[in-house]
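To illustrate the input format used throughout this study, we show a single complete record. The first block contains the structure-token representation of the backbone; no residue identities are included at this stage. The design step must infer an amino acid for every position from geometry alone.
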């Protein structure tokens, strides 16, 4: 009599999400074996059994596939052996695997039918747990983040999706909480992408911690295994208030859970939220997790006062900005907007578009502006409004499309990299490159002012430009022939230290971020493109963006840049 075949089960989540706890509790239900992170250098399986896939059993410590996350298996003898043993082991069924280093799981999930347990936890809380328990140092996370960047860089699929925002330098210089925010964003994105065709069970960290017994009842039902007292005892053992908090698979009690608002600073939380948002992950607007036991009384909500934008005359806007532009004195008569574009200026642009019945979003994705809780422009219903007190602050949260479209709307275009470095910044950028820093009383960087400042807060530079560096970075166009169709940014920002000059920004076209704005330049002060032609050309751009999918591609970027080059050419 043959036993009923049971598919293997995968537990997957980013680190610090409770995967060890779930693995250790349900492992006894898998007579075929249970292995904790076989794709890493571990051999810590239940009962002290050796990991049958332990790399040390097969070869020496140095392997291409180990170094780069098992992505080039066909060219690495250990990697090929791992793939053969691992896949064969999974196909037998009835086995359990837990992985948190999962960038290489795509090929596995497509090869073997699995039942997948996905555990979700607010990234802010996981990152707070790292900080609270000093795990950055204990786990050598600096080195692991560099390995993450190497893994992505050496995998064509991952490099296309994430390579531009995960350079080795970034993983060395960024603050630890920002590195982990990148890790969690990519982790959640890849888990969703790689598990969409498999049978899945979703559990939250809170459910596992606060509702352990009913949650594990559901898990056991999902994996078609009977509930028994051994499972219940394992839960009690691993949630004991007397157990060492650092023990493997320990959850202790709900009163010991890390609350991110008690560990992370406001700026750290804002950084994490911004990075996650850039990857399409919307975090809840809350101050505590597990509010039933630990939340403080909420303060009364203070309504933000908004100043609505009324009728807009485009010609008046153009003349106003041109009047405040600075002539650079170059042979081509380059004129530069004296200040960064402000919230009220950009809000008038959005208002004008709405008055022309032009869409501000397509397929739920913003065309010009990410109307986020932290943003100072509100685009609700038919109303366009600016938060009181921020009209003369630089606009941010705008995407490349918005920056390019606004620049043409006022009769100009985006500056090039050379124009930004050699003209707009004049001597500031040379000073920055020479000394690696700027005086804080001359520039708004590194969260010194806890937000943006009015665009004329600091004195102008030698040629009359305010905020040549700092306050907000700007989108630029066609930096050089090699990267002609790569979206790039230039400058320093209020919420970053002085590490950034010109850098790629591989975000999809609809994503902006805090601290990223626009400053138009004008090749000459001639007649701007007409309203009719502008709207016609913008409709063509929208058609391009909706012709296939909303994902960027090199071909789409090339066409997009060409269309904006053509549109700005009508201003000449």
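Output of the design step:
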């Amino acid at each position: 009599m043959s036993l009923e075949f049971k598919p293997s089960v995968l537990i997957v989540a980013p680190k610090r999400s409770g995967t060890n706890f779930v693995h250790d509790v349900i492992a006894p239900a898998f007579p075929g074996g249970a292995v904790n992170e076989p794709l890493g250098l571990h051999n810590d399986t239940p009962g002290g059994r050796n990991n049958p896939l332990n790399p040390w059993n097969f070869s020496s410590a140095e392997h291409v596939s180990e170094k780069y996350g098992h992505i080039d298996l066909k060219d690495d003898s250990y990697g090929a052996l791992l793939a053969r043993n691992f896949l064969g082991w999974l196909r037998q069924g009835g086995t359990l695997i837990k992985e948190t280093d999962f960038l290489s799981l795509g090929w596995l999930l497509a090869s073997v039918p699995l039942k997948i347990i996905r555990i979700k936890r607010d990234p802010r809380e996981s990152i707070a747990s790292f900080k609270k328990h000093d795990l950055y140092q204990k786990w050598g996370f600096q080195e692991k983040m560099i390995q993450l960047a190497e893994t992505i860089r050496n995998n064509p699929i991952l490099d296309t999706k994430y390579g531009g925002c995960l350079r080795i330098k970034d993983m060395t210089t960024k603050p630890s909480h920002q590195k982990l925010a990148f890790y969690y964003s990519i982790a959640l994105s890849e888990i969703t992408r790689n598990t969409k065709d498999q049978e899945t069970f979703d559990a939250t960290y809170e459910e596992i911690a606060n509702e352990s017994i009913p949650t594990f009842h559901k898990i056991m039902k999902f994996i078609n295994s009977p509930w028994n007292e051994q499972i219940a005892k394992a839960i009690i053992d691993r949630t004991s208030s007397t157990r060492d908090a650092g023990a493997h698979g320990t959850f202790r009690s709900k009163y010991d859970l890390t609350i991110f608002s008690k560990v992370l600073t406001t700026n750290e939380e804002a950084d994490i939220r911004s990075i996650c948002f850039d990857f399409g992950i919307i975090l809840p607007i809350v101050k505590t997790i597990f509010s039933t036991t630990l939340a403080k009384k909420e303060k009364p909500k203070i309504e933000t006062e908004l100043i609505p934008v009324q009728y807009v005359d485009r010609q008046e806007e153009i003349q106003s900005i041109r009047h405040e532009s600075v002539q650079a004195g170059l042979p081509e008569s380059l004129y530069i907007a004296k200040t960064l574009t402000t919230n009220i200026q950009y809000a008038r642009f959005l208002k004008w578009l709405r008055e022309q019945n032009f869409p501000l979003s397509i397929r739920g994705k913003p065309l010009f502006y990410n109307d986020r809780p932290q943003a100072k422009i509100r685009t609700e219903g038919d109303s366009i409004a600016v938060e009181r007190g921020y009209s003369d602050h630089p606009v941010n949260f705008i995407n490349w499309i918005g920056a390019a479209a606004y620049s043409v709307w006022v009769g100009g275009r985006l500056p090039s990299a050379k124009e930004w470095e050699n003209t707009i910044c004049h001597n500031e950028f040379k000073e920055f490159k020479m000394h690696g820093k700027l005086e804080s009383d001359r520039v708004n960087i590194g969260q010194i002012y806890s937000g943006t400042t009015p665009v004329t807060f600091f004195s102008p530079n030698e040629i009359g430009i305010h905020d040549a560096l700092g306050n907000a970075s700007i989108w630029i166009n066609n930096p050089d022939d090699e990267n002609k169709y790569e979206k790039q940014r230039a400058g320093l920002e209020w919420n970053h230290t002085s590490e950034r000059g010109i850098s790629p920004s591989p975000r999809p076209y609809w994503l902006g971020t805090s601290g990223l704005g626009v400053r138009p330049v004008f090749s000459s002060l001639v007649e701007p493109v007409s309203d009719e032609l502008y709207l016609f050309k913008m409709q063509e751009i929208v058609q391009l963006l909706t012709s296939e999918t909303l994902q960027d591609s090199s071909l789409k970027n090339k066409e997009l840049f060409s269309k904006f080059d053509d549109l700005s050419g009508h201003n000449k």
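Structural context for interpreting the output: The first strand starts at residue 9 and ends at 12. Confidence is low (pLDDT under 50) at residues 41-75, 242-248, 290-301.
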